[in-house]
Design a protein that fits this description.
The chain is mainly α. The protein has nine helices and no strands. The chain is rod-shaped and about 105 Å long. The chain starts with a helix and ends with a helix.
Length: 201
Protein backbone atom coordinates (compact mmCIF):
# COMPACT_ATOMS: atom_id res chain seq x y z
CA UNK A 1 0.00 0.00 0.00
CA UNK A 2 1.28 3.47 -0.89
CA UNK A 3 2.72 5.52 2.01
CA UNK A 4 0.45 8.48 1.28
CA UNK A 5 -2.58 6.23 1.45
CA UNK A 6 -1.33 4.84 4.76
CA UNK A 7 -0.89 8.35 6.11
CA UNK A 8 -4.43 9.24 5.09
CA UNK A 9 -5.82 6.16 6.81
CA UNK A 10 -3.60 6.71 9.85
CA UNK A 11 -5.02 10.21 10.30
CA UNK A 12 -8.42 8.60 10.57
CA UNK A 13 -7.20 6.31 13.34
CA UNK A 14 -6.73 3.21 11.21
CA UNK A 15 -4.65 0.83 13.35
CA UNK A 16 -3.96 -1.45 10.41
CA UNK A 17 -2.30 1.44 8.56
CA UNK A 18 -0.24 2.18 11.66
CA UNK A 19 0.85 -1.46 11.86
CA UNK A 20 1.90 -1.45 8.21
CA UNK A 21 3.98 1.70 8.69
CA UNK A 22 5.53 0.16 11.80
CA UNK A 23 6.49 -3.02 9.93
CA UNK A 24 7.84 -1.02 7.01
CA UNK A 25 10.02 1.46 8.91
CA UNK A 26 10.83 -0.09 12.29
CA UNK A 27 14.00 -1.96 11.31
CA UNK A 28 15.25 0.93 9.18
CA UNK A 29 14.79 3.39 12.01
CA UNK A 30 16.50 1.10 14.51
CA UNK A 31 19.48 0.78 12.17
CA UNK A 32 19.50 4.57 11.76
CA UNK A 33 19.54 5.27 15.52
CA UNK A 34 22.20 2.60 16.11
CA UNK A 35 24.57 4.72 14.01
CA UNK A 36 24.36 7.30 16.82
CA UNK A 37 24.15 5.26 20.02
CA UNK A 38 25.75 1.92 18.98
CA UNK A 39 23.28 0.16 21.26
CA UNK A 40 20.48 -1.90 19.73
CA UNK A 41 18.36 -2.00 22.88
CA UNK A 42 18.53 1.77 23.30
CA UNK A 43 17.79 2.24 19.59
CA UNK A 44 14.71 0.01 19.83
CA UNK A 45 13.42 1.99 22.82
CA UNK A 46 13.90 5.24 20.93
CA UNK A 47 12.13 3.97 17.81
CA UNK A 48 9.21 2.64 19.83
CA UNK A 49 8.80 6.08 21.39
CA UNK A 50 8.93 7.58 17.91
CA UNK A 51 6.03 5.39 16.76
CA UNK A 52 4.07 6.24 19.90
CA UNK A 53 4.53 9.90 19.01
CA UNK A 54 3.45 9.15 15.44
CA UNK A 55 0.20 7.62 16.68
CA UNK A 56 -0.48 10.38 19.20
CA UNK A 57 0.15 13.14 16.63
CA UNK A 58 -1.43 11.34 13.67
CA UNK A 59 -4.00 14.09 13.10
CA UNK A 60 -1.18 16.57 12.41
CA UNK A 61 0.27 14.52 9.55
CA UNK A 62 0.36 15.99 6.06
CA UNK A 63 -1.37 13.57 3.70
CA UNK A 64 0.63 14.93 0.77
CA UNK A 65 4.00 14.04 2.31
CA UNK A 66 5.62 10.67 2.83
CA UNK A 67 5.90 9.69 6.50
CA UNK A 68 9.52 8.64 5.95
CA UNK A 69 11.19 11.99 6.69
CA UNK A 70 8.73 12.64 9.51
CA UNK A 71 9.54 9.30 11.17
CA UNK A 72 13.28 9.78 10.85
CA UNK A 73 13.00 13.26 12.35
CA UNK A 74 10.89 12.00 15.26
CA UNK A 75 13.27 9.10 15.91
CA UNK A 76 16.26 11.44 15.93
CA UNK A 77 14.53 13.89 18.27
CA UNK A 78 13.57 11.08 20.64
CA UNK A 79 17.20 9.93 20.61
CA UNK A 80 18.36 13.44 21.56
CA UNK A 81 15.74 13.50 24.32
CA UNK A 82 17.02 10.17 25.65
CA UNK A 83 20.59 11.50 25.74
CA UNK A 84 19.47 14.60 27.65
CA UNK A 85 17.55 12.40 30.09
CA UNK A 86 20.60 10.21 30.68
CA UNK A 87 22.77 13.27 31.25
CA UNK A 88 20.25 14.68 33.72
CA UNK A 89 20.27 11.39 35.61
CA UNK A 90 24.07 11.31 35.61
CA UNK A 91 24.19 14.89 36.86
CA UNK A 92 21.68 14.05 39.57
CA UNK A 93 23.72 11.01 40.59
CA UNK A 94 26.84 13.17 40.70
CA UNK A 95 25.05 15.66 42.95
CA UNK A 96 23.73 12.90 45.23
CA UNK A 97 27.17 11.27 45.38
CA UNK A 98 28.88 14.57 46.16
CA UNK A 99 26.41 15.35 48.94
CA UNK A 100 26.77 11.85 50.37
CA UNK A 101 30.55 12.15 50.25
CA UNK A 102 30.50 15.55 51.94
CA UNK A 103 28.19 14.18 54.61
CA UNK A 104 30.46 11.17 55.16
CA UNK A 105 33.53 13.39 55.41
CA UNK A 106 31.73 15.58 57.93
CA UNK A 107 30.70 12.53 59.97
CA UNK A 108 34.24 11.14 59.85
CA UNK A 109 35.65 14.47 61.02
CA UNK A 110 33.19 14.61 63.90
CA UNK A 111 34.07 11.04 64.85
CA UNK A 112 37.78 11.87 64.75
CA UNK A 113 37.17 14.95 66.90
CA UNK A 114 35.45 12.78 69.51
CA UNK A 115 38.31 10.29 69.44
CA UNK A 116 40.90 13.02 69.88
CA UNK A 117 38.97 14.51 72.78
CA UNK A 118 38.67 11.10 74.41
CA UNK A 119 42.40 10.52 73.98
CA UNK A 120 43.17 13.95 75.43
CA UNK A 121 41.07 13.23 78.51
CA UNK A 122 42.70 9.84 78.98
CA UNK A 123 46.23 11.23 78.69
CA UNK A 124 45.40 14.12 81.04
CA UNK A 125 44.47 11.61 83.75
CA UNK A 126 47.86 9.85 83.58
CA UNK A 127 50.48 10.51 86.27
CA UNK A 128 52.67 13.50 85.25
CA UNK A 129 55.73 11.42 84.33
CA UNK A 130 53.68 8.90 82.33
CA UNK A 131 51.89 11.71 80.57
CA UNK A 132 55.08 13.46 79.54
CA UNK A 133 56.79 10.26 78.37
CA UNK A 134 53.88 9.07 76.25
CA UNK A 135 53.51 12.52 74.70
CA UNK A 136 57.19 12.60 73.80
CA UNK A 137 57.03 9.11 72.32
CA UNK A 138 53.65 8.96 70.60
CA UNK A 139 53.07 12.59 69.73
CA UNK A 140 56.58 13.87 69.04
CA UNK A 141 57.90 10.52 67.84
CA UNK A 142 60.96 10.48 70.11
CA UNK A 143 62.79 7.22 70.79
CA UNK A 144 63.09 5.81 74.29
CA UNK A 145 66.78 6.73 74.41
CA UNK A 146 66.01 10.33 73.42
CA UNK A 147 63.32 10.57 76.09
CA UNK A 148 65.67 9.14 78.69
CA UNK A 149 68.36 11.70 77.81
CA UNK A 150 65.97 14.66 77.77
CA UNK A 151 64.40 13.73 81.12
CA UNK A 152 67.58 12.51 82.80
CA UNK A 153 66.21 9.04 83.50
CA UNK A 154 67.14 5.51 82.42
CA UNK A 155 65.69 3.75 79.39
CA UNK A 156 64.27 1.10 81.74
CA UNK A 157 62.37 3.82 83.57
CA UNK A 158 60.97 5.05 80.26
CA UNK A 159 59.90 1.50 79.39
CA UNK A 160 58.31 1.04 82.80
CA UNK A 161 56.39 4.31 82.56
CA UNK A 162 55.23 3.44 79.04
CA UNK A 163 53.87 0.12 80.31
CA UNK A 164 52.00 1.92 83.06
CA UNK A 165 50.61 4.39 80.54
CA UNK A 166 49.57 1.65 78.11
CA UNK A 167 47.79 -0.32 80.82
CA UNK A 168 45.78 2.72 81.89
CA UNK A 169 44.99 3.70 78.31
CA UNK A 170 44.05 0.12 77.40
CA UNK A 171 41.61 0.03 80.28
CA UNK A 172 40.09 3.40 79.39
CA UNK A 173 39.78 2.67 75.68
CA UNK A 174 38.60 -0.92 75.66
CA UNK A 175 35.67 -0.08 73.40
CA UNK A 176 37.65 2.07 70.99
CA UNK A 177 39.94 -0.40 69.23
CA UNK A 178 41.14 2.13 66.65
CA UNK A 179 42.71 4.50 69.18
CA UNK A 180 44.10 1.59 71.15
CA UNK A 181 45.68 0.21 67.98
CA UNK A 182 47.29 3.57 67.19
CA UNK A 183 48.60 3.93 70.72
CA UNK A 184 50.15 0.47 70.71
CA UNK A 185 51.86 1.01 67.35
CA UNK A 186 55.46 2.15 67.57
CA UNK A 187 54.70 5.24 65.48
CA UNK A 188 53.57 8.74 66.44
CA UNK A 189 49.87 8.96 67.19
CA UNK A 190 49.49 11.70 64.60
CA UNK A 191 51.58 13.82 62.29
CA UNK A 192 48.90 16.47 61.85
CA UNK A 193 49.87 19.62 63.76
CA UNK A 194 46.26 20.77 64.07
CA UNK A 195 45.36 17.48 65.72
CA UNK A 196 48.43 17.52 67.95
CA UNK A 197 47.44 20.95 69.21
CA UNK A 198 44.16 19.47 70.43
CA UNK A 199 46.13 17.42 72.94
CA UNK A 200 47.42 20.63 74.60
CA UNK A 201 51.09 19.82 74.15
Amino acid sequence: MDDLVLVSKLKQGDKKAFKLLFECYYDRLVAYIITFCHDKMQAEDVVQLAFINLWEDREKLDEKKSPRSYLYAIAYNRYIDSIKKIKRKEKLLDIVWERALRSRISEDNEFLERRIEKMKQTIDLLPPKCKKIIQLNKIEGKKYSEIADSMGISIKTVESQMRIAFNKIREALKKDKMILFLMLKSIPLTSNKSQVSKLNL
